[in-house]
Fold each of these.
Amino acid sequence: MSDDTFQEKIYTALFEASTADLTVALVWLAASILAIYLPVLNESSVRVVLTLPVILFLPGYCLIAALFSKEDDIDLIERIALSFGLSIAVVSLIGLCLNFTPWGIRLDPLVISLTLFTMAMILIAKYRRMLLLRGQRFRFPFSEIASMIRNSFNPHEKSRVDRILTIVLSLSILIAVLTTIYVIAVPKEGERFTEFFILGEQQKAADYPDHIVVGEQYPLYIGIGNHEYRSVTYMIRTYGMLMKFDNTTNTSRIMSMDPLWQHSLTLAHNETAIIPYNLSVEKSGYNRIEFLLFNETGPDPAMNSSDLINASYRDLHISV
């Protein structure tokens, strides 16, 4: 049974030294979320400094705090060591679960999931400490932390084997942290490519016009996603085409190809643009609308129809 009144329990949960570590964890979590989404901070090194502990340490520490609420359950070094290992496990499991959801492993779902998990562990840890006698509650020794860490490496009461194991464990944690920081700071460059797609009037991959009347407009959207690891200037060109199938040669031939519209834009790496486009033709006789995308190497004006399509970086079409 606890010797505290209800008011004392509320004070303990919010302000007492036995929950100071959980309060710090909550404040750090809030600061990391601000660093991710605030316009100025999310482009600075502050974001990395604040968010790395949320991935590598905070979830595991709060889980350990919820599981081991007593002072003498485990010592400080074991808490810190387990916090790193469990954080990596928790983040990996959350990512695995998100991979099988409609949201996928993206920034917003990951931030929300980690935030909910960490806050849940903080609340459970606070509640479990409230149920204990004041002297039994774990209290993070902020003032004595330096001396405790120093003593853990050179304790008089521990054997030489214990000291070696402590040093090896600490070095393993340090190597794991430095490796993670390096992977995040210097990401491996993946495949270079550009997305090029056409969406219908409702911005979905459907409802494309299959009959076109001269002079009428048909709303479409043209999408470009730059994943080239550099800024790229793109040019979009649309053409009205008449193609006929030659039964003798079993091939299609371009009978005519008239320009309809063009647009240029520059996109940074990982930037995507959705461009509204009103499809309209001034004469009849087309059975295909061709969409050509060029990068820095634009088309030669002297190219014929087939060479123009072959010279494009990406090409799409709608049959009408």
Amino acid sequence: MRLLLWQWSTAIQVSSVLMIAVFFAVLSRSVRRAELRWWAQAWWANVAALAVTLTFWLLAPPTGVNPVLRGAYVGCKLAFTLLLMQGALAIRRPGARVLSPRGFAGVIALYALVGAAWLSTIDLIGIAQHATMSALFIGCGLVIARGNERGFRWLAAGFLVRGSLALVEFVAYVMDFAPRFAPARLSPQLPTFLAVHSSVDSGSEWLLALGCVLALYGRIQRELEQYNTELLAAQEDLRRLADRDPLTGLANRRSLPEAFRSVHDGSAALLFLDLDDFKRINDLHGHGAGDDCLRRFADALRESFRPGDVVVRYAGDEFVVVAPGLDEGAAAQRVDVLRTHLASLDGLAITFSVGIVTLAAGERADEALVKADEAMYAAKSQRRRTSKVMTAEFRAVRPPVAAK
């Protein structure tokens, strides 16, 4: 009867572990994640351990081969446990390692040698193997659970459940090895439990597999959220760069539609400013001097208007200011402040012409902008006429040069 139960339990475990191993092998090929490669290798190590077990029971190899099989079995089981831990910790914290590759191989080799040399009975193998698995699984489960991260609770539960089962199996093997430690009421059930416990292990291993998938999903979801946040931030940076004039640091004309939308339901003063004789500055003093004039004018604009006013470099030496809540008179006062400020600056003198209109609530902004532009050109023409008149009057009153 015990042999029949063992065969049934082993058949369940073999089919279960094979399905999990194939599942992770396929998943690791479709989802290129280092964590999944660890898990796929872990389940194939478990398949190898089962293959050693079946070889021992079904083929009944010569006695001299048994130490090799014992060493191979415990080595594969330890590899299974360590690889599961490595995959779990790598999912929780990318780049984390349980052991270095050399340390990993050394620990497994040493454990396999100990198993081959001293674990001469099934009970001793069960005691050593389940004590090791219990300590490692429970320890890893506690580490994962301590983080309390989204998606990792099932994984922590899988490790803790599998470790707890290994602890129970360790106790069962101890009682089978030393019957004096077994309570009288448990002794009759002990052989049955040892025959079927591997089928119970299969259920906990599916819980481990489920925990891995959910933890991986949680990790990928967090990474996607982080990438999306970074992408949105990058898009916002690009938008700011696209809406910013690199020379003056002012907003460029791309920002005007948003500024106009913000004052659509209220009134605003709309100013269109243009530097006087800017081409002459470039021609006489070079484009470097012209750029310096533009930067100084932009700084003066910022300082002369309010923080909430939108100051825009419209094109070349043309600038636009949208000043919410200001009427034309208040805007003209700001312009006077600007002229005074410019007059106090060192360097080439900067003069400008300005057109001011009121952008009424609900008015079409493009039409108001055309009106401000026209008002600016009218002011520029008036300034030129005034300049010519003053020049003519100066020449008329200038005394004649005495003949030599």
Amino acid sequence: MAKQNYKREAKEHNNLQEGDFEMIATTFFGLEDVLAHELLRLGAKNIDVANRAVSFWGDNGFMYKANLCLRTALRILKPIKRFYIQDQEEYYKFINAMEWETLIDLKDTFVVDSVINTHFFNHSQFVSQVTKDGIVDRFNEKFQDRPSVDKDDPTLRINVHIFRHDVTISLDSSGTILHKRGYREEVNLAPLKEVLAAGILLLSDWEPHIFMLDGMTGSGTFAIEAALIANKIPPGYFRNDFGFMRWKDYDQAMYETIYESMIGKITNGDPRIEAIEISPATAKIAQKNVEAAKVEDVVKVINKDFFSYVPDKPRGVLFLNPPYGERMGEDTDMVAFYKQIGDKMKKDFKGWTAWIITANMDAAKFIGLRPSRKITLYNSQLECKLLKFEMYDGTKRTHKFGEDYKKGTPQTKTEEEN
């Protein structure tokens, strides 16, 4: 992805039409530009990047398509009310005045999620409680009855965002968070989130025609997400429930038309993907997930130690999500482990590109190679670095100047050499 290209191209996608409204797609820190690029390709309008989120415009059909197709979004929110508050009491009055009966009935259920950065409230759970009280009190006043709260499987998921004085009330059209694709039947102890894996793949140089190796696969997430990208399988293909499907204005016929259109674009390409896992039990988990994702024809799971694996391809892209330290036994020497990774790449992966995500930068220094790129990302609450290593076949100078340099007759010189 050419960074920021979406900003130039997005100018052609800003013609709003009747029925268009604002939406907000949330994501992990560091994936905002990737998500914006995805939205542009999908046809979003008025794209604007924020911290861990991208706002955009579209209609109901586009909201359905965004939930079904976006690989790097966590939730798709639909703002329905914005207001300015001076205190807690004023917040309650605004919530109580909203016409919630147009969104849910007495038999329905709801839940409130809150994100706050304000001095009016000390805790997000308290905001959720005040919001719930405002909604329930309105129903009791009007109907002498009220809908119930259901934290696990609500009819309506309400999102509250408060920044200082500014409040945004949104409906969560996704329901269950979007990184739960629906194909992962089992996980290992420290699974990589699907959204993060997809984001790393889209950030990288990997393309479906290039051999791809997931060297420490765990539950198989990197390999499976690569197969979905390669064969244009929408990440929501395995889900049969989104939050918007429970809304009063849900258009099932429209969603089915969009779904069939996206499914019709699935290809039967031949990406070359292998996933290595040292643990027999975890390798079985990865294989089950590969089969659940219906990509067993393109992903080969190999129960083997990465350090004993020797690629038979002269070129390829290697992805590694190695242990950071907290996942390994207390006796494990992380410095030695990361040094072993570097030695392995230098020995057997010449000509390859490698991408490593880690939260243990102290140990990563002992890989012994200088990364050509460092990108800050988050794996859950852990700050990580995504490191790119270009494993030249020979020295970097040889790679740059070609065979003539080996003969002592470089064709060009860098500024530093002049």
Amino acid sequence: MKALILSIGEELLTGQTVNTNAAWMARQLNLAAVEVEEIRVIHDKRDDIRRSLQEVDPAISLVLITGGLGPTRDDVTRDVLCEHFDARLVPDQEVLNDITTYFTQRGREVTGINRDQAMVPNKARVLRNPNGTAPGMWFELDGRSCIAMPGVPFEMKEMMRNLVMPALLEKQGDRHILHKTVLTQGVGESALMEIIEGWEDNLPEDIQLAYLPSTGIVKLRLTGRGSHKSQLEEVINGQIDRLKQIIPEYIWGYDDDTLEGVLGERLRERGLTLTTAESCTGGYLAHRITSVAGSSDYFTGGIIAYDNRVKTGPLLGVDTRLIDSHGAVSREVAEAMALGAREGMHTDLAVATTGIAGPGGGTTNKPVGTTWIAIASEKGVHSKHYAFGNNRGRNLILAANAAMAMLIHSLK
């Protein structure tokens, strides 16, 4: 089954609202083995909606529409759908009861304009909306399903979960699409492609690979299609086992894992504590670590040593001669920061970052993006050099990602 997601709303086109609905819906549809062929965003104007419905590719058997079902004058989706499907509006008592209950629970009176939302197309199956006033509508014509839902995210999601997805899964029967995503860090997309070229060339025909790069992370998504779910899972897991033997130093997680989440799990499993000593990342690394609920189980706190006086002060105790001889951005200083933080904060592990985030401050020997990251533990201290580039914001993310990946790999 192939699908079109049609998002209606002026606010989506102006950037005033981010179209998170379409991304969420696409993920749900994939789980039901429905392939999204196109996502289209249009104005909430009659002609635009009408034209989009008329121009749907014949191969599309499912159209999902969000937006334009509200009570105001600019909400015209319901009217255009009536025109397209040659339907007329009729009152629906159950919908009116839902609307009345919705307002009564909130101590408000039902207005005439809201009662009008209980008028529904006579050729549509009504999708009741317990979280709002606009019902959904499911049309069937010539083998194609057209489903209109509210644009309010939590209203749409409830409708999708409870009414739309169960019906689509029943329609699909034995057809399955399975995704498994391998998360890597520390290697670029093109370099990774060369390393795993042989493995990729030998993937089974029913397994496809997609490279999904982001800042400092490359996701490898394996997609399998078939009628036997257990067989697909076995084949995909087998391919991932082969991949782990080829690039074990780059893989850190799977699917929806986050670096901070995986790091937290590893630390909690081992009963270890962690502190940070940050120069170039300015607290961003600690922010990422503490964004995980329960991180107080393993993260004791951090030191932002942005100025050299903080590095050499009592908190970290970096020898001033190291900075004089090697500079603040160096292996020696990064390692001294990590050792000082571990000792001063009395933790099992400490990670330190020092670098030139930019856009200024670089030299010929140490250009913008030069970064050193060090980890101290009971085994000693080790560090790594990175050359990230000249974008300050990106460098902060890259340095934090690299620091957490180093910690994860050190805990294997």
